[in-house]
Amino acid sequence: MNSPYYTTVAMDLGVCQLRNFSISFLSSLLSTDSSPVKLDNSSSGASVVAIDNKIEQAMDLVKSHLMYAVREEVEVLKEQIKELIERNSQLEQENSLLKTLASPEQMAQFQAQTQTGSPPTSTQPPAHAPALPPTQPSHNSGPSA
Questions:
Q1: Which residues contact 107 (CB under 8 A, 6 or more apart)?
Q2: What is the distance between the alpha carbons of residues 93 and 104, in angstroms, rounded to a whole number?
Q3: Cβ distance 54 to 25 under 8 Å?
Q4: pLDDT in tens, 67-115
C-alpha cells in the first residue's frame, strides 16, 4: 500500500515535471520562427492568428497532460480505497470473532469502558474460570477436547 507521503512526493514530482515540460514546450512553440514576430501593418493579423494558434495548441497539450496526471492519481486512489475496504472487512471479521469468543463479563467490562472513555485495564480472568498459560493464546474458534 502506498503511503500518503509517497503519493504526495510522487504527485509533486509529476507536477514539477509537467510544469517544466509545459514551459519548454511553450518556449519551443513560441520560438519556432527564426525571426522575432514583427508587427507591421501588413502581417499583424496573420501574426496574431499564428500566435493564438500556438497558444491554443500549448493549452491543449497542457490540458491533456493534466488530465493524464489526474487519471493516474484517480487510479492510485481507487487502489488505496480497495485496500482500505479489504482491511476494514478483515477487521470487522476479527471484531466479530472476538465478540463471539468473549465472555459476558468481558463484554460488559468493555462496554463500560467505551461508555466512560477510560483506557482498557489489564484483563484479569474471572475467579471461577481457569487462567490460560500466557505462552498459549487461544486462537481457535472450535470447542476444545
A1: 99
A2: 19
A3: no
A4: 999 999 999 999 999 999 999 999 999 999 999 999 999 999 989 998 8
